């Protein structure tokens, strides 16, 4: 991989620049209509949404969190979560790709190198997509010339297949946690499509294998310390947004497929209330994260993290509960391969598996106690 100045060599048609939050929401809704049309076909046959993701990039939506000092829009986090939920409702796999992308951009916001941020934010503005992974502890990162040589295998990670850039966590020769910013099409970096889960089948999860990849020092940065970073909080908030999208999609099918809905108002209403409560939790967490980004003192950052954790649990439970209700209330229709109604349950289950629930439960409990005391 070259130096930061060479990161601009990746050429693609410039993406549209979204100017307002209203335009961002409108673009998301228009794309969602298109994405929904063949979502079942893609899920059943595992057809990758390459064209859909290119349309997403060219629309400008993938750049809406670039900070204004880098000529970006930097929309509010509550609205960002809603946009991810809109996309995830149309296709949960595309929503999870978008969530991963925005988390990486949030991590980039907190990097100290202005040259690195300028180069990569410019790529995001032009429509490039980002993903993140972690190289296993046994991976080799040794000093080599003006940087390091990376060898080894990464963990499986969402969106790798569709990314232009990888933010890869690793351990440097001094034992410090660092982030490597890698071009996915580097000659010594191999992408392995080894994802065979029964849900989120087309979210681009893959493994990276580095074979003596040279990484320049100016594309390597120290990983932020602490567990309450804005990157972590945004990651949780957008995981919640994907779950909320799955819940809404399942609920929409539930309203259509439920047998004798007039006799089931109570059960349907319960699911509607859960989804509405999760939506409110995301909005609250988004506002707290806005404050933490503006004033990154530890109390504000911890508050944002606690709130995002609670929102993540609420949305996950709403998705699982609504997907289960579809089996219960639609009865035999859920067994139809053509209708593919079981995709909501499969997506919710696989998405739930990516979330470490016990730490989140502890975090959510601390948040509830803190809120009660205040």
What general outline do the C-alpha atoms trace? globular
Instruction: Enter the CATH topology name of the largest domain.
Output: Butyryl-CoA Dehydrogenase, subunit A, domain 3
| Number of discrete domains | 3
Compute the number of helices: 11
Reported CATH architecture of the largest domain: Up-down Bundle
The spatial strand order of the largest sheet comes to 1-4-5-8
The helix fraction, in percent, is 40-55%
Describe the largest sheet: 4 strands, mixed
Radius of gyration (CA) equals 21 Å
How would you explain this protein's 3D organization?
The protein is α+β, with helices and mostly antiparallel strands and 374 residues long. It folds into 3 domains: 4-129, Acyl-CoA dehydrogenase/oxidase, N-terminal domain (Butyryl-Coa Dehydrogenase, subunit A, domain 1); 131-222, Butyryl-CoA Dehydrogenase, subunit A, domain 2 (Beta Barrel); 230-373, Butyryl-CoA Dehydrogenase, subunit A, domain 3, CATH 1.20.140.10. Helix content is 53%, strand content 13%. It has helices at 21-37, 39-45, 50-59, 77-90, 92-109, 114-125, 230-257, 265-294, 298-330, 343-353, 357-373; strands at 130-134, 140-144, 147-153, 165-171, 177-183, 189-192, 207-216, 220-222. A 4-stranded mixed sheet has the order 1-4-5-8, with helices on one face. Strands 2-3-7-6 form a 4-stranded antiparallel sheet, with no helix packed on it. The longest helix is centred in the C-terminal third of the chain and has 33 residues, at 298-330.
């Amino acid at each position: 991989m070259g130096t930061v100045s060479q990161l601009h060599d990746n050429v693609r048609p410039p993406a549209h620049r979204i100017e307002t939050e209203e335009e961002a929401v409108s673009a998301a809704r228009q794309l969602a209509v298109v994405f929904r049309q063949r979502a079942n076909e893609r899920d059943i046959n595992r057809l990758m949404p390459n064209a859909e993701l290119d349309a997403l990039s060219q629309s400008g939506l993938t750049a809406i969190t670039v900070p204004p000092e880098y000529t970006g829009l930097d929309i509010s986090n509550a609205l960002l979560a809603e946009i991810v939920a809109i996309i995830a409702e149309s296709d949960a796999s595309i929503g999870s790709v978008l969530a991963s992308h925005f988390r990486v951009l949030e991590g980039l916001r907190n990097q100290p190198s202005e040259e690195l941020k300028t180069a990569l934010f410019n790529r995001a503005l032009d429509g490039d997509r980002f993903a993140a992974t972690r190289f296993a502890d046994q991976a080799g990162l040794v000093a080599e010339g003006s940087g390091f040589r990376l060898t080894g295998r990464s963990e499986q990670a969402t969106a790798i297949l569709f990314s232009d850039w990888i933010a890869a966590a690793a351990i440097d020769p001094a034992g410090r946690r660092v982030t490597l910013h890698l071009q996915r099409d580097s000659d010594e970096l191999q992408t392995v499509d080894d994802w065979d889960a029964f849900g989120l089948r087309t979210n681009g999860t893959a493994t990276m294998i580095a074979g003596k990849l040279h990484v320049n020092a100016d594309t390597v940065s120290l990983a932020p310390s602490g567990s309450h970073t804005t990157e972590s909080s945004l990651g949780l908030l957008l995981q919640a947004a994907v779950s909320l999208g799955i819940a809404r999609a399942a609920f929409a099918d539930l309203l259509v497929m439920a047998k004798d809905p007039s006799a089931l108002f109570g059960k349907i209403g319960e699911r509607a209330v859960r989804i509405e409560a999760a939506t409110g939790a995301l909005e609250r967490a988004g506002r707290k994260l806005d404050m933490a980004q503006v004033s990154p003192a530890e109390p504000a950052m911890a508050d944002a993290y606690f709130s995002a954790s609670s929102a993540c649990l609420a949305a996950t439970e709403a998705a699982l509960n609504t997907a289960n209700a579809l089996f219960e209330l639609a009865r035999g229709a859920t067994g139809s391969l053509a209708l593919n109604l079981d995709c909501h349950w499969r997506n919710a289950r696989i998405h739930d598996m990516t979330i470490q629930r016990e730490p989140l439960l502890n975090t959510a409990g601390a948040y509830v106690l803190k809120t009660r005391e205040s």
